């Protein structure tokens, strides 16, 4: 046998076919030629590829329809916001019945559009329509169904509240919850069946229908936030008086009906139950609006032929993260109960409740920050190319993470400034300083971890796919062929072993070892040092287990941190120091504007982390 040659172990048929096409010589690998100006292959020639004129003309109306529909949605949203503001400040001539009539009309119009869309889709159900596999995940539709069920219960309580105060309430107070319940039922059915649709017919009409649905849900979300904030504001003023901030005098109005309810106990229980269910209604409306927004972005979109691999929920191997996360969840519920019981009863108990909350939150945020840093460090060691393909759902997730985190960042920076600018600082206010700093740092770290995670391919794909790079010589000109991705089911041997067994030709024209062997040698060292010196315990299944535990722990921690502000445990209200520095009304405006985004951030981060967990 000539020196420098080895016996090549015969690979499977699929691999032989792929390698044969790669290494078949000049006939399979023509020499690259630079285009000559004026030649048919040059850029300046008439034969150069260019977009068809018909395609350009057809895209112009679609762009105009997208711009017109978005402006229509913004006009509807701004009009609704002004009506909400007018009702909140008791503007003359604007009552709650006017606001509810406007919202009811928007919901009825959306109901008509959804019924038309569902009916048309049923009539053409035999036609194959493109789908966006990234949109409307099953677990997301399941969570929105749970929130929708609680929203319907909330509507039933509102109907009972209307019956109790029927003597002094307008009919719209009873019509609105019934319409909202019907709207919720049909919308959940619509999202279950059509959230993945990529609309290719009646695109202009559908754009207006979908964007109308998006902003209708946003207005319903704003209405729920406003009602819940007014209730929290009333309790906040009573707590501030208990803490000794008696110089804050503002008359609050919760729009209580001017008549008595019969029986009073029944109406009081319903009123309290309504405000405890508002957080779920708020989450339902914002989740529905985000899913509908992705549907709007997909109207007329050309979907890639390569479908994304389905990701599944896998529980084994996450015992540590799950147990620690469930412990945090149970501890959070206990802290919230103690906080709500002690706050507002006396100054000493209120200060103790604030200190308890700050200490617990500081410890939890430090754990979450450390877990996020560990996950980022693993990603830095495990170098892997990111998926940069166009994906409206993934882009929306990343944008929402950053934009909604700014709400809590605004509150935290306000608290930091208040601590340094205040003339008198009670002892419990000093705990707010590390708490506010950790809120900023933890969300920054968590956003980095989630955004990089959702841009990575699932770990299963990285195992099932092998990349074969071959450098060959054709007609004495060296070109580098693009990577040929071969699935492991078709390729029985590893790339490293294939590179070691590949022969060198006698004439020296083909040197696969130069390109393939170097990467194979690097990959063969993973069993000892791993890529870039990666430790043994962060390789393969061990690395995935660590990342899954991190994702599971952060998921449960974000659920835990969603509970306190959603159910009235808000030290930003009860601290009292910020109101003295900034003034009561300016600080309350800041908190009321930023708090809904901060609450939504935790739920959205939990949803994103669940997706990350399923992909690992």
Describe this protein's structure.
With 616 residues, the chain is mainly alpha-helical. 66% of the residues lie in helices and 3% in strands. It contains 19 helices and four strands. The chain has helices at 13-22, 53-88, 96-123, 138-164, 172-194, 203-242, 264-297, 319-342, 347-381, 392-421, 427-430, 432-454, 459-464, 495-501, 512-524, 540-566, 571-574, 577-582, 584-615, and strands spanning 465-468, 471-474, 477-480, 484-487. The strands form two sheets. A two-stranded antiparallel sheet has the order 1-4. A two-stranded antiparallel ribbon has the order 2-3. β2 (471-474) and β3 (477-480) form a beta hairpin. α16 runs antiparallel to α19. The longest helix has 40 residues, at 203-242. The chain is globular. The two termini are 47 Å apart. 33% of the residues are buried. This is Otopetrin 1. It is found in: Cell membrane.
